Amino acid sequence: xxxxxxxxxxxxxxxxxxxxxxxxxxxxxxxxxxxxxxxxxxxxxxxxxxxxxxxxxxxxxxxxxxxxxxxxxxxxxxxxxxxxxxxxxxxxxxxxxxxxxxxxxxxxxxxxxxxxxxxxxxxxxxxxxxxxxxxxxxxxxxxxxxxxxxxxxxxxxxxxxxxxxxxxxxxx
Length: 172
Prior knowledge:
By secondary structure, the chain is α/β, with parallel strands linked by helices. Helix content is 23%, strand content 44%.
C-alpha cells in the first residue's frame, strides 16, 4: 500500500511539472512574447468656451467593424485591414477612449458635470462617439497613424442632435 501511495505521488508530481511547463511556456523565446499597450494622454489645453450649466453624459464609444477588437490594425493597401501578430491593446481602443474623453471634458470647465455612461445620473446633454478607424498606415515608403472619430452631441430632454462632427487626425 505504501508503495502505491509513493507511485501516485510521483505520478502526480510529474503531471504537475508537465502542466506548469505548458502554462509557463518553458523554452519560449522573447520573440514569441506579445507586447500589450494602453492609450493614455494628457488633455490638450482647451480654449475655454462659455460655460454651459448642463450635465454631460459621455456614452461608451462604439467602434466600426474591424476596430472593435484589442488587436492592433495596420493597412498596406486601401480597404484591407491586417493585424499585428505580437502587438495588442490592453482593451479595445474605443473602450480605452472613454476615460480620456471624460477627463478632457471635465478639465475644459465648460459643463456643470461630466459623467460616463452607464451610470445612475441622467444628464441634459449626451455625447456619443464612434471610433471610425485607428490604424497604422504603410504607404509610399512611410508610416503614419490615422485616428478618425465621429461625435454627436444630443439634447437628452428633446431627443435631438445638437451637432455632429468627424475628427480625422494623422501623425507620422
